[in-house]
Amino acid sequence: MSDELVFYTNPMSRGRIVRWMLEEVGAPYRTVVLDYATSMKAPEYLAVNPMGKVPAITHRGVTVTEGAAICAYLADAFPEAGLAPPTTSPERGTYYRWLMFACGPVEAAVTNKSLGFVVPDDRRVMAGYGCLEDTLNALERAVAGKAYIAGDRFSAADVYVGSQIGWGMMFGSIEKRPAFEAYWAGISQRPAAKRAAEIDDALVAKAKEAADA
């Protein structure tokens, strides 16, 4: 069984979240960049993720897909990085709560907004997130006045929640509320976040140069 950590991604995808997490972990990893129209749908990658989507990782004979799951896995696989509260800490529950809230209700709510879909008032009980306003209000309360979402130290939940907030504000699917801006301003300045962005931005520039050549 190989201990090699392999990261499958595209720099214009949610793989950027996992890139940040990998840089926080600090363990060596190999990157496989996939193209949406070709290699992401090729048999070789479909054997890794039958959905034909990124991100994904392979590590110690295990394949993990879905950004939040990858962040949680990496935090546990590399405990020396200190990116998850101890399992005996009450903060562990808060950590799981907001990590899953971001990949569930928040992801669904902002995606539906981007697609122009609004849940009818009389159907909100059928939607896991209810409505966008309720989802964002809950998220705002979770980060208001806090440096980190799950206690007094940075965790994998901040990588995932912060990425959702940062991207959402950038693309207009999440309102630029003061609590969101303050929370994102703090965690986005972390050295690992900056390194990850530089790596992926360079890959985007390289792909553009190749397309223009």
Which helices and strands appear, and what pairs or packs with what?
Layout: E1 6-9, H1 15-25, E2 30-33, H2 43-46, E3 56-59, E4 62-65, H3 67-77, H4 91-114, H5 132-143, H6 156-171, H7 178-187, H8 191-212
Parallel strand pairs: 1-2
Antiparallel strand pairs: 1-3, 3-4
What is the top-level CATH class of the largest domain? Mainly Alpha
Structural class: alpha+beta
Number of helices: 8
Beta-strand content estimate: 5-15%
Helix content class: 40-55%
**pLDDT averaged over residues:** 96
CATH topology of the largest domain: Glutathione S-transferase Yfyf (Class Pi), Chain A, domain 2
How would a textbook summarize the main sheet? Answer: 4 strands, mixed
Give a quick rundown of the structure.
The chain is an alpha+beta fold and 213 residues long. The chain has helices at residues 15-25, 43-46, 67-77, 91-114, 132-143, 156-171, 178-187, 191-212, and strands at residues 6-9, 30-33, 56-59, 62-65.
